[in-house]
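Internal tracking record. Fields below are filled automatically when a chain is submitted to the structure queue. Please do not edit lines marked as system-generated. If the sequence contains nonstandard residues, flag them in the REMARKS field before resubmitting.
Queue: standard
Priority: normal
Entity type: single polypeptide chain
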Amino acid sequence: MRAVVVPGAPGAGEAAAPPGRLSAGVWCAAAAFVAVELAVSARYGFHRDELYFVVAGRHLAFGYVDQPPLAPFLTRVATALFGTSPSAVRVFPALAGGAAVVLTGATARVLGGRGPAQALAAVAMACAPVTLAAAHLANTTVYDLLAWASIVYFALLATRAGRPRAWLGAGLAAGLGLENKDLLLLLVVTLAVGLLVAGPRAALRERWLWAGVALALALWLPNVVWQAAHSWPELTMSRALRKEHSTGSDYTTVLPAQLVYLGVAAVPLAVIGARRILRDGPLRFLAIAAVLVLAFVVVDIPGRPYYTDGLLALVFAAGAVAIQARTASDRAVRRWLAAPVAGAVASVVLILPVLPEAALAHVHGIHKLNYDLTETIGWPQLATRVEAVYRGLPAGARQHAAVFTANYGEASALVLYGRGLPPVLSGHNTYWLWGPGAAPDATVIAVGAAPQLRQFFASCTDDAVFRPPHNVVNDENGVTISTCTGPTGPWSSFWARLKHYD
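SYSTEM-GENERATED OUTPUT FOLLOWS
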């Protein structure tokens, strides 16, 4: 079948893309980005999600209660190659972030941008707070960002550059992306709506597009089968997240948060890019997809405003090309580089672990400004505190004891950092699915979980209150460690009632 060619777009009597290689500025921006991420990767400690993924990687499966298997699998590979440390598990996220920066420059090239425009788009992506923050942690966000940028890039190659085989690349990115996060379905569906409404509709008849769809489904199928076999826990998770992140304050902050995540200094570039895709006929299918994605996030889960940021590569690339088209010289385009760079320099202390840990306790509102940053403080100390409570038990009680935690972060920290602790259990997400096994039940050290256990034990006594180093404010500050004795029955008799997915 012939390539799909859009009248007035590259491929209709003009070059499909500017000749030559991708601008050196793009590669420099990506290299600098990766270097910065790796330079700070060992500062502070593991994030609760990273701890969870390290443990989940030791229980490899085609799915988990709260996400598909890709991120835990990559964490397993990283620990096998580099050891179990924060810097080790953060190598792949840094590289994924760098790849997203390169794809942003490449997207500008497909849209007709010369070297300076490609570099501007790449630098804006590298300096965006959401990119810097996402690529610092080994969770699902950075891989999701890369998958969205990849699909948009290949869709543009197929529709605007007249290269229909690029739909296979989009299918590969979609399939791998769906093995990371189901949110990617939102982009796939909205792109299909955009093509149907605004065209080029001929793309929907293109055999390479359907080959890409088939490839994506084949890659995603193992997780779908796992979800079906386990009663679709991710649907339960989605409902829980929607309820948790749809408060009144979420609705009032979701739109301003869009500007914060892309970088306030880069807002003019993003606005120009948004106008470009809205007004450019061959790009209108992407504009429709972007509007639908934003509307979904605002209406359905406003407490997750960064769910829209997979489209930043497109917006920055379109903005850079539009600026190049209306300026007199490449030098004028390069002057735009100052804004995102200055914005990143001004905000990096709130995005990456640059400050001393002790300083975080004195930054007002830091837990709200960057929740993930403060969640990397205190896990080894929590394990030490639980160990002390365990060692304080009578010798006979220690032989028949277990630990039960309120969340997967606590459980995973105790698995990784605990020395000589008994089996560690939790009812949170996939920990509940893993079950209690043969863990003892006569004495249970409850970490933040005494309220859950009291109805199943004769007595729960509070032993200690945990405070992270320097009294940094995070979710573990003030967690009570208790000892519960006198179970009403074995774990199996009440395990089903300990389940909580959120």
